[in-house]
Amino acid sequence: MVSPKTTHPSTDMSLPDVYPRRTRPAIRPLDVPPLRGPQVRQLTEAQRVFEAAFPPIRASDSDSLVLNWDEIERQYLDLVAPWDLQNAMFRIREARRMAALESPEKTFRWLLVLAQSCPGLDAEEPPSGTGKYLPMP
Fold first, then answer.
1. How far is CA 6 from CA 9, 18, 25, 77, 130, in A?
2. How far is 22 from 96, CA to CA, in rounded Å?
3. Which whole-number Å values give the CA distances from 87 to 15, 26, 77, 92, 128, in the listed order?
């Protein structure tokens, strides 16, 4: 029997050929407050600075990757630790709202930062009161 995660034979014949699909809790609607005037001005200025540092690169249509926000959100939320799901939902939906004022490249950069900063599936929940995990208000 070959292990599903490696190409090496498994030493435990009782292991299944395929790992079962993880079940995830249903995601309830989460309202992200609308952007206010000062936030819009700050994002617009940040976008201007970003574009000055990273001018747009001309690309052919064949180089484009097309994803919609529902797909991005689904994949992001599937990768976070279950105990951090509420926080992750807020962060990704806030990024979605801010993306209306940013270039695709800057939005992608922010998504990379979010992915790097979220606790992964295997992360243990820190004990409360340690200061290692502060929930979003």
1. 8, 12, 29, 26, 37
2. 26
3. 35, 15, 10, 9, 15
At 113-122, the pLDDT tens digits run 988 888 877 7
Closest CA to 32 of 87, 77, 90: 90
Structure tokens at 10: 């498994």
Residue 68 DSSP symbol:
-
133 has a pLDDT exceeding 60: no
CA 15 – CA 2 distance, rounded (Å): 10
- The candidate with the shortest Cα–Cα distance to 136, out of 93, 76, 73, is 93
Q: What percent of the chain has pLDDT over 90?
A: 17
For the cut 90, the answer to whether the pLDDT of residue 63 exceeds it is no
Supply the pTM of this predicted model: 0.58
**Helix, strand counts (H, E) of the chain:** 4, 0
Rounded CA-CA distance 84/135 in Å is: 8
| CA angle at 70 for the pair 108 and 67, rounded to the nearest 5° | 50
